[in-house]
Write a structure and sequence with these properties.
Layout (H helix, E strand, L loop, with lengths): L2 H6 L3 H15 L4 H17 L13 H27 L8 E6 L5 H13 L3 E6 L5 E6 L5 H22 L8
Antiparallel strand pairs: 1-3, 2-3
Length: 174
């Protein structure tokens, strides 16, 4: 099959997702509504084809479970810490900006790492340079150099977990 023709062929997962979205939006799970959603999803995917996912990435189930579990732990712990510091009238957090070079070369793993870092309370991604792979973060409370070093270490650990969960070609460094 030619490359041009394969671009026009809808992929199964986006096709099912768009069909499910259509039927959920209308709240009618009838055969006619589902067929209409399927036809509309096919038309959308043919007219606006999705680019192929960046090669070299593969989901590793054990790594993905570790990534998800650690993310949830970080989320709960950071939420409690930020909530306490936000309501304590005697505490004044020392916000800092931090530049962290990422070791991964895939744009997708860099973005996933940045999003996971931003979703954990206490850190916010300000910028991700696509050429150098440098992640710029704002840290809610980092009054000492040791706290800044700990924030850098957390970002590198998060990236290592993302690479272990998704990477087939990159060597997990550090």
């Amino acid at each position: 099959m030619s490359r041009r023709r394969s671009w026009a062929r809808p992929r199964l997962l986006p096709l099912l997702a768009l069909t499910l979205l259509w039927t959920a939006l209308f709240g009618d799970w009838s055969v006619g509504n589902t067929v209409a959603g399927l036809l509309l999803a096919t038309l959308i995917l043919v007219l606006f084809p999705l680019p192929p996912v960046i090669g070299g990435l593969r989901l590793h189930p054990v790594g993905a479970v570790i990534l998800l579990a650690r993310f949830l732990v970080d989320l709960v712990v950071a939420s409690l810490e930020v909530a306490y510091k936000a309501v304590a009238p005697w505490y004044r957090p020392a916000g800092r900006f931090l530049r962290v070079p990422l070791s991964g070369t895939s744009d997708l793993t860099r973005v996933i790492t940045a999003e996971l870092c931003s979703l954990v309370p206490g850190s916010l991604v300000v910028d991700l340079d696509p050429e150098t792979g440098v992640l710029m973060l704002h840290i809610f409370d980092a009054p000492t150099p040791q706290r800044l070093a700990a924030a850098v270490r957390r970002v590198h650990e998060q990236e290592r977990r993302v690479l272990r969960a998704l990477s087939a070609s990159e060597v997990v460094a550090r």
